[in-house]
Write a structure and sequence with these properties.
Elements lengths: L6 H6 L17 H7 L3 H15 L1 H17 L3 H16 L3 H14 L8 H15 L3 H17 L3 H17 L3 H17 L3 H17 L3 H18 L2 H17 L3 H17 L3 H17 L3 H15 L5 H17 L3 H18 L2 H17 L3 H34 L3 H32 L4 H26 L10 H13 L6 E8 L2 H8 L1 H18 L5 E6 L2 E7 L3 H16 L15 E8 L6 H17 L5 E4 L5 H10 L1
Parallel strand pairs: 4-5
Antiparallel strand pairs: 1-3, 1-4, 2-3
Length: 649
C-alpha cells in the first residue's frame, strides 16, 4: 500500500514545485494564492495539503486549525476538504479516527455546493478498506467514486478516483485496465494544468511495470521521480519512492542498491515521524539480510518493524513482515514457527488477491513442509504455487504485451523487439520453473506425472501467446488497421493466381500532411491519420482490403477490378476524405485532401514490388498535377492499357 501516494494531496489538486519548468500558460501554484487569499481558512487548507507531501504531522495541525476556525465561520465545502485531509492522515494510523472524519464529512455533504466532493469521501473510504486488506470492497468504493465524479462533471475528483482505481487494479493483477485508468487520470491532470500529478501517475505506472516483471524500466522511472521529489523537498513522497526503488532493486538482486534505498527511506521516515514508512523500510532491510545469509539479523529487524506495524492499519504490511519472518525462521530451521508465520501471511495475501506474494508464500511453505516430511501438504502448496504462478505469468504476458508495450512504445520496431525480449524472459521463467519441478521430483517422485502435465499446459499457453504476438506484429499501432506487412502478405498470393482477372492497387497519400504536423503538432497529425484510416476502413469491404504503408500513405487492393473501375473507386475515396469534418482542427475553411496513384496488374506476371513502383509513379504524377486528384499507371508492356491510363489522366 505504501506504493500509493497521498490521496488527499492528489485529491485536492494542490500544485507543488514541478520537476520541469513551469510554462507561461500554467496557473500559479496554489500555495502562492493561499498567501494572498482573503479567507484564512482556505489558506490553512492549502498549506495543510502541501505539508502532507513533506510533514504529515504539520499537515494535521493545520487541518485541525482550519476546523477550529470553521466553528465560527461555517463553510461545508471547506470543512469537507479539511476532513478529507485528516482522513488521509488517519487512514495510515488509526482506522477508527479515519472513519470518524468520513462520517463528519458525509454529514456536511447535503449543505455543500460542490457535490463532487462525495467522490472524495468515497475515495477515502476505499483507501481505508484497501489498507485493511479488503481490496474487493475498496474497488467497489473507487468505482462508485468514479460514477459520482462523472455524474457531477467534476474532473478533479474524477482524476483522483481513476488514479485510485487504476492503482488497485494493477495490485490485483489487471494491468491492462489499470493502465487505462491511470492514462485517463493523467490526461485529466494535464487538462487541469497540475504538473506534479503527472509525476504521481508516473510512479503508479512504474509500479505496474515492477509487478509485471519489468524491473529495469520501473527502477528507471522511480529514479527520475525521486530526483524531482528531492528538488521539491517532498520528504514523505521520497519515502514512498525510495521504498518502491528498493523493491525494484530487490527484484533485480541488486542488494547494495536496495539496502541504500531502504536505509534512506528509514532515515527520512524517522525524521518526519512516519511510522508506516519506517515499518516498510525495515521489512525491506530484513529481506536484504535474508538474501545475504543473515536470518538472525533479519529477525531482529522484523521484531522492530512489527512493533511499528501494530500501530498502523495496514494488512498488507503485516503480511509482508510475516512472509519475511517465515523465510528467516526457515533458514534457521525453526520450521514450526516458520510454518505459522507463513500461514498467517497467506491469509492476508489471499484476501487481497496479491498474486505475486501468494506465489512466494506457497513456494516457501512447500519447501518447509517438505523438510518436515509432510509430503502431502508440500505437494498441495507446490500445486497452489504453480497455479498462481501460471495466472501471474498469464497476466504478465497477455496484458504486458497487449497494453504496456502498445500504449507506451511509439516505434513499431521497438515494440516488436521489446515483445520478443518479454517472450524470451517468459521462456526463461518457464525453464526455471521446470528446473524447480525437477528438484522437487528428486524427493517426491510421485509428483512427476502431475507436474509434467502442468508444464504441458504452460507450453500450450505459450503457443497461444505467440499467436497473439503475431497478430500484434501485423497491425499498425497508431491507427489499428493492418500494417504494410499484413497487406503485402495478402497481395502476393493474389498476384500469383493463375487467373485471367486483373486487379488494381491504390496508394492514398494525405496532401500537405507535413504542414499539419509542423503547424498543429504531431498529436493532431496522429488524430488526422486515425480519422482518415477509419474513413477508408468504412468504405472498403471484402474482397477488397487495405492497410497503412507508413507515414501518411495507405494501400488499397481491389481484386478482379479493371483500371477504369479502380479509378472511379479512387475518385470516391478522394471525395469521402475531403468530406471529413475538420472543424476540430482547422476551422471551417480547410479540408483534408488526398492524392491517389492507381496501378493495374497482370496476375502471374506482376509482383507486389513492381505494382507498388507503378502506383507510386502514378502518385507522384498526381502530386505534380496539383494534388487532390487521381492518376493511373498500367503495366509498361501493355501499351493499350498504358495509353488508356494516359488518356484517363
Amino acid at each position: 500500500m505504501i506504493a500509493r501516494l497521498s490521496v488527499a494531496v492528489v485529491l485536492l489538486g494542490i500544485l507543488c514545485v514541478s520537476p520541469t519548468p513551469v510554462r507561461a500558460d500554467d496557473p500559479e501554484p496554489t500555495v502562492a494564492t493561499a498567501t494572498t487569499t482573503v479567507d484564512p481558512i482556505e489558506a490553512l487548507i492549502e498549506q495543510s495539503t502541501l505539508a502532507m507531501r513533506t510533514d504529515p504531522d504539520a499537515s494535521k495541525r493545520e487541518a485541525d486549525q482550519a476546523l477550529e476556525l470553521l466553528k465560527k465561520s461555517p463553510n461545508p465545502d471547506l470543512e469537507i476538504r479539511a476532513r478529507l485531509l485528516l482522513c488521509d492522515y488517519q487512514s495510515e494510523r488509526d482506522t477508527a479516527a479515519a472513519q470518524r472524519e468520513i462520517a463528519e464529512a458525509t454529514a456536511r455533504l447535503p449543505q455543500a455546493k460542490r457535490q463532487g466532493l462525495r467522490a472524495g469521501i468515497l475515495d477515502c473510504e476505499g483507501e481505508s478498506l484497501e489498507n485493511s486488506g479488503d481490496n474487493a470492497k475498496a474497488m467497489a468504493q473507487y468505482t462508485e467514486a468514479v460514477s459520482v465524479a462523472t455524474g457531477e462533471h467534476d474532473d478533479e475528483m474524477l482524476a483522483q478516483s481513476l488514479f485510485s482505481r487504476g492503482y488497485l487494479l494493477g495490485v490485483m493483477g489487471d494491468y491492462a485496465t489499470g493502465l487505462i485508468e491511470l492514462r485517463r487520470a493523467d490526461s485529466l491532470f494535464e487538462k487541469l494544468k497540475k504538473p506534479m500529478h503527472a509525476l504521481t501517475t508516473l510512479n503508479s505506472i512504474a509500479t505496474l511495470y515492477n509487478r509485471m516483471g519489468d524491473y529495469v524500466q520501473a527502477r528507471h522511472i522511480y529514479t527520475r521521480a525521486l530526483a524531482a521529489q528531492r528538488e521539491a523537498g517532498l520528504q514523505r513522497e521520497q519515502v514512498v519512492t525510495l521504498h518502491n526503488l528498493g523493491r525494484a532493486n530487490e527484484n533485480l538482486h541488486d542488494w547494495d542498491a536496495a539496502r541504500a534505498a531502504f536505509a534512506e527511506a528509514l532515515e527520512i521516515s524517522r525524521r518526519i515521524n512516519y511510522l508506516r514508512g519506517e515499518a516498510y523500510a525495515m521489512r525491506g532491510l530484513a529481506a536484504i539480510s535474508n538474501a545475504l545469509g543473515d536470518p538472525k539479523g533479519a529477525l531482529d529487524t522484523l521484531d522492530s518493524a512489527e512493533v511499528l506495524q501494530k500501530q498502523v492499519p495496514d494488512a498488507r504490511l503485516r503480511a509482508q513482515i510475516q512472509l519475511a519472518r517465515g523465510i528467516s525462521l526457515h533458514k534457521l530451521q525453526r520450521l514450526p514457527e516458520s510454518t505459522a508465520a507463513l500461514e498467517s501471511a497467506l491469509v492476508d495475501f489471499r484476501q487481497a488477491d496479491a498474486l505475486y506474494e501468494l506465489t512466494l508464500v506457497y513456494s516457501e511453505l512447500s519447501a518447509v513442509y517438505a523438510e518436515t516430511g509432510n509430503w502431502r501438504d508440500a505437494y498441495a502448496r507446490q500445486v497452489d504455487a504453480k497455479t498462481v504462478s501460471d495466472k501471474l505469468l498469464k497476466n504478465q504476458l497477455d496484458q504486458g504485451f497487449a497494453t504496456l508495450k502498445v500504449e507506451f512504445d511509439t516505434a513499431t520496431q521497438d515494440k516488436e523487439n521489446a515483445a520478443l525480449k518479454k517472450q524470451n524472459e517468459a521462456n526463461e521463467k518457464a525453464l526455471a520453473q521446470a528446473r524447480s519441478v525437477r528438484r522437487l521430483q528428486a524427493t517426491v517422485i510421485i509428483l512427476t506425472i502431475s507436474l509434467v502435465l502442468l508444464l504441458t499446459l504452460l507450453a500450450v499457453f505459450q503457443h497461444r501467446s505467440t499467436l497473439r504476438m503475431h497478430l500484434l506484429a501485423m497491425t499498425d499501432e497508431l491507427t489499428g488497421v493492418p500494417n504494410r506487412r499484413a497487406v503485402l502478405v495478402r497481395l502476393d498470393p493474389l498476384l500469383r493466381r493463375d487467373s485471367v482477372e486483373s486487379c488494381c492497387i491504390l496508394i492514398v497519400d494525405i496532401d500537405y500532411f507535413k504542414a499539419i504536423n509542423d503547424q498543429l503538432g504531431h498529436s493532431t497529425g496522429d488524430e488526422v491519420l486515425k480519422v482518415v484510416a477509419a474513413t477508408v476502413r468504412s468504405a472498403v469491404s471484402e474482397p477488397a482490403f487495405f492497410g497503412r504503408l507508413g507515414g501518411e500513405e495507405f494501400l488499397i487492393v481491389l481484386p478482379a477490378t479493371g483500371l477504369a473501375a479502380a479509378r472511379a473507386v479512387a475518385q470516391s475515396f478522394c471525395e469521402k476524405i475531403e468530406a471529413i469534418d475538420t472543424s476540430r482542427w482547422f476551422g471551417e475553411r480547410r479540408h483534408i485532401t488526398c492524392s491517389i496513384g492507381v496501378a493495374a496488374a497482370v496476375p502471374g506476371r506482376d509482383t507486389p514490388s513492381t505494382m507498388l513502383q507503378r502506383a507510386d509513379a502514378a502518385l507522384y504524377s498526381a502530386k505534380r498535377g496539383g494534388r487532390n486528384c487521381v492518376r493511373t499507371e498500367s503495366a509498361p508492356d501493355e501499351p493499350d492499357v498504358a495509353a488508356a491510363a494516359v488518356a484517363d489522366a
